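Subject: Protein record for review, amino acid sequence with backbone structure tokens
Why sent: The fold of this protein is of interest and is recorded here as tokens.
Enclosed: The protein record, placed directly beneath this head.
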Amino acid sequence: MTSQRTRDRLINRLREQGIVNESVLEVMRQTPRHIFIDEALSHRAYEDTALPIGFNQTISQPFIVARMTETLLADGPLDKVLEVGTGSGYQTSILAPLVSELFSVERIRPLQEKARERLKLLGLSNVHLKHTDGGMGWSVKAPFDGILAACAPEEVPEELKQQLAIGGRLIIPVGGSDSQELKLVLRLSEEEFSTEVLECVKFVPLLSGTVR
């Protein structure tokens, strides 16, 4: 169930659902999603579904990973990107080959440590990890050309908006447990932002504080 043929079927499904960025599709084809989940669930690794990874967290549905990555890169290659919510490291491993430098924050240390091992296994040396409250971002490394959040706050955190470079893009799910929308926030100038709703989604909430 982890063969290249199985991965190819997933890529074909993503194409059918409207993913067109060939670079994103190729990275997803080459990335072994089964190493990011428990062995007991590895037979489901290439289904287009979210799966549990412990600590009430999930590995995101491949379509959503592809959609968010494609949207983040819609204006072309990015040099410096922030990921909020490393989780299993799967989204991190899809983004890393497509950007120059990736900074990823995670509030749950055991998840971060597992992700670190997987990223090392894949030879992804342009990723910098930090154990911290995700809603605060990584201000000392700002500004970022792009920010991708894999967890949903009730409102777009002002801290993240302020860490965007002018012309930068923020992809973030927003809302409570009943209703969430995936939003694209563009920083037009020092003070001006535009927001576009992309689609309805369901993500784990963005929580404050850290877990050791």
Observations:
- The mean pLDDT is 94.
